[in-house]
Design goal:
This protein has strands spanning about 10-15, 20-25, 45-55, 60-65, 70-80, 85-90. The protein is mostly beta strands.
Length: about 100
C-alpha cells in the first residue's frame, strides 16, 4: 500500500517494461526514499509526488515530493525505450525548477 497520513491521490501509473512509475498528489506523511530530491512536504493542500516501484511492485525504489508552497499535481506518460515524461500543474510560485 502506498500513502501517508493525509489524503493522497494517484493521478497516473506509467508502465514501461519492468518499470512502474506512480505520480499524483500527496500530503504529510507520504513515504519518500533516502535519495528523494524533495524529502519533505512543500506546503499548501497537496504536493505532487513521483514514486518508482520494483518490477513486481513490492519495493519502493524511489519516492519524492515535487512541489512548492501551494497545490501541485503531477501526471505521466510512458514511451517505448524506458522514457517517462512528467507533467502537471502548480499554483506554487516557488515550484522547484532547474
Amino acid at each position: 500500500m502506498l500513502g501517508g497520513t493525509d489524503s493522497d491521490q494517484v493521478r497516473d501509473i506509467c508502465l514501461d517494461g519492468s518499470d512502474i512509475l506512480i505520480v499524483g498528489q500527496a500530503g504529510l506523511g507520504f513515504p519518500v526514499s533516502l535519495d528523494a530530491i524533495q524529502p519533505t512536504f512543500g506546503g499548501g493542500v497537496f504536493d505532487g509526488f513521483v514514486t518508482h516501484l520494483s518490477n513486481d511492485g513490492s519495493t519502493l525504489s524511489y519516492s519524492s515530493f515535487v512541489g512548492g508552497a501551494n497545490q501541485d499535481i503531477l501526471g505521466c506518460a510512458a514511451y517505448s525505450g524506458g522514457l517517462s515524461v512528467l507533467g502537471g500543474w502548480s499554483f506554487a510560485s516557488d515550484f522547484p525548477v532547474t
